[in-house]
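Hey, can you fold this one?
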Amino acid sequence: MDEAFQTPPKSPEHLTKITELPGILKKLVGSEFKLTGKTRTDGANIRKIIAKELFDHGLPEGAIDDEYEIVPPKKKGVPRMLRE
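Sure. Predicted structure:
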């Protein structure tokens, strides 16, 4: 997955509109991809496919490093896709 997804957007207002997402991800409907049967591997592969489509469409402007702080809820992991 591209490192651009590791940085959150400059503002939540710049995120892709929920009404535009079906049009962006429509290309994935009916496309074939290999399932290994391992949930962790399959999830990672599907995230990469979705990330590629979002990246091809264009990501919102990313925040500068000192403009944000990530505090995970309940001190658990940080989501992989922060930008979209």
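The chain has a mean pLDDT of 84. Let me know if you want another pass with a different chain boundary.
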